[in-house]
Structure prediction request, 377 residues.
Amino acid sequence: MKRQVTIIGGGFAGLQACRALRGETAVLLIDPSPVTTMLPALPDVAGGWVPEQIIQHPIGELLPSCATHLQAAVSSIDLDAGTVRAGDQTIPYGHLLVAAGSVPNFYNSPFPRDRMHPLATLSDAVRIRADFEAYLRETERPHLLVAGTGYTGLELAMSLFFRAKAAGKKCTVTIVDPTPILLPSLPEKQRQYVLNFLSAQGADVRLGVAVESFDGRNAVAGGTAYENTFFCWAAGSEFAVPEIKGQVERLRDGRLKVEADLSLAGHPNVFAAGDAAAIEQKGQVLRKAVNFAYYGGRHAGRNLGRRLRGQPTRPFRPMDLGWVVPFHETSIGRLPGNIWVHGRLGVRLHHLMCGIRNYSFANFAGCLKLAMKGTHT
Ligand SMILES: Cc1cc2nc3c(=O)[nH]c(=O)nc-3n(C[C@H](O)[C@H](O)[C@H](O)COP(=O)(O)OP(=O)(O)OC[C@H]3O[C@@H](n4cnc5c(N)ncnc54)[C@H](O)[C@@H]3O)c2cc1C
Prediction:
């Protein structure tokens, strides 16, 4: 069978596209990672509450027989030449799906990277877990400094705070963000709920404040010095492929603007899905979320199949199934029908979602067990 579709990224979007193309064509899936990961559970793994085994699965075991996994990172896409650069190879493509997700944005910060602790991959989570455990062992009065008051920053802060508590250490927590509002997409009442929970744990949330310096140990933020701090960076994300050559419209964070069928304007043989794509609905770009990636990837795969058969493509109609963000003991979430959830119910739903969207029965069963317990501890 001739290789006809190249997919960059074996996360939710890339794998669903691969499955949708089963029996249609040969697929080359390019991803540097040997495993696919349930990213929403990363803060749980970083805090040592969830074993990493139940949030990962080898990509090779999930691919249909028509697909081959090339374990390499794509460094460049040339839309004019119709090639991708992966490792030291230049690979021509006939049809392409960009589903490489996103990576942490360090905004060219001069701080030592190996001490900044971003949380975007399974290895980041495992490293945070090990580093934080060592830090707790060695430190009399631990202090956690988190840059970024998005969901990742807040979830990670609480996961580590409760880890310190379980270890019998009183860990002070400071969470800073240069933007003036915490979780701006939430209504005021829900935002206040999150703030009240964080304050009740003693977390100091400093909005309108950036980290000014960090030497790997000591930091200054908003004029306040923090000594011997454990620093986590959750201040933003950007497009995962470093270079794109050719005409394409993008958002500031690099996401590719797509047409209604998820193809790129002017490049009918190139599609994007998941966190790599900027999908507009009712005048707003969809948030980065598992369900949009899952169904978007599947839809892009089906449209690629239609293109190959010479049939018209169909528009993607995203359905918002709601969201839940767990803060270790409590949660905030919105279900379809504008129903808000708080407390342990949301923690249960979070683990349930991690199980349902997981890739093996063992992983599903592990997550279900956590959902039934309704707590991390
Ligand atoms: C800490 C954290 C918590 C989250 N919590 C939630 C949540 O509670 N609910 C929710 O809905 N969403 C959550 N998200 C967002 C959600 O995980 C993403 O929206 C979703 O994973 C996007 O799927 P994707 O397939 O586009 O990308 P990903 O799942 O990120 O997969 C991208 C794949 O591309 C590969 N890749 C990266 N760069 C390259 C490259 N240069 N070349 C080739 N391959 C590459 C990666 O290895 C990866 O396998 C969270 C994300 C994070 C990081």
About this structure: Residues 8-14, 30-33, 36, 39-40, 42-43, 73-74, 99-101, 119-120, 152, 240-241, 274-276, 288-291, 293, 323, 325 surround flavin-adenine dinucleotide (CB under 6 Å). The chain has three domains: 3-32+72-104+237-309, 113-233, 323-373. The CA atoms of residues 49 and 376 lie 6 Å apart. The first strand starts at residue 3 and ends at 8.
